[in-house]
Automatic annotation (TrEMBL):
Keywords: Hydrolase. PANTHER family: ISOCHORISMATASE HYDROLASE (PTHR43540:SF1), PEROXYUREIDOACRYLATE/UREIDOACRYLATE AMIDOHYDROLASE-RELATED (PTHR43540). The keyword Hydrolase applies. Residues 4-139 form the Isochorismatase-like domain. The keyword Hydrolase applies. It holds the Pfam family Isochorismatase. This is Isochorismatase family protein. It comes from Amycolatopsis rhabdoformis.
Length: 169
C-alpha cells in the first residue's frame, strides 16, 4: 500500500518570520521535497492545520495560520485544536485502515509526537522524516528536543528516515 503523507502544522507562523523554528532553513526544503515526491507518485497528502486561540500566532484567519504549501484538489485539510491530529477531527475517516503514514511537520515535541503515537496506537505503520520536523528552543535546545522525540517515537515503533530516502511507490 502506498504511504499517505501527513503534513502536520506546516504553517506560516512556524516557518516564516517573525519567529520561525530555529531549523526552518533546513526543515522547510526537506518538507517541500517530500511533498513533491508524494505528489509526483500520486500518493495521498493530508494537511493538518492548528487552530490557535486568543493571542496565539495561528488564530484562524490570521497570516500565521495559513499553510505554507498550496493545497491541491483532493488534498484534505484537517483543522485541529489539540496536539493529537486524530482528536475531534475527521482524520481517521480520511485514512484507509492500516495505511502506512509518512509524517513531517511541526512541532516535534507537541503535535508530531502526539499524532505519531496515536497513529501507531491505531495500527498505522509510521515513518518519521527525520530532517522534516522541528520545534522551538525550550528547556533544551530545539535540535536536542527534536532528536529526543525521534528516539522516543522509534522506541514506540515508528521508522526513521531522512527526506532523501523517503519515496512513495
Amino acid at each position: 500500500m502506498v504511504p499517505v503523507l501527513l503534513l502536520i502544522d506546516v504553517q506560516h507562523n512556524m516557518l516564516l518570520p517573525p519567529e520561525p523554528v530555529p531549523a526552518a532553513a533546513t526543515v522547510a526544503p526537506a518538507i517541500a521535497a517530500v511533498l513533491a515526491r508524494a505528489r509526483a507518485a500520486g500518493a495521498s497528502v493530508i494537511h493538518v492545520r492548528n487552530n490557535g486561540t486568543d493571542d496565539d500566532p495561528d488564530v484562524p484567519g490570521t497570516p500565521g495560520w495559513e499553510l505554507i504549501h498550496d493545497v491541491l484538489p483532493g488534498e484534505p485539510v484537517v483543522d485541529k485544536s489539540t496536539p493529537d491530529s486524530f482528536a475531534d477531527t475527521p482524520l481517521s475517516t480520511l485514512l484507509p485502515p492500516g495505511a502506512p503514514l509518512v509524517v513531517a511537520g511541526l512541532q516535534s515535541d507537541f503535535c508530531v509526537r502526539a499524532t505519531t503515537l496515536e497513529a501507531l496506537r491505531r495500527g498505522h505503520a509510521v515513518t518519521l522524516v527525520t530532517d522534516a520536523h522541528a520545534t522551538y528552543d525550550g528547556s533544551v535546545p530545539a535540535a536536542e528536543a527534536s532528536a529526543a522525540v525521534a528516539a522516543e517515537l522509534a522506541s514506540a515503533g515508528a521508522s526513521l528516515a531522512p527526506s532523501e530516502v523517503v519515496h512513495f511507490g
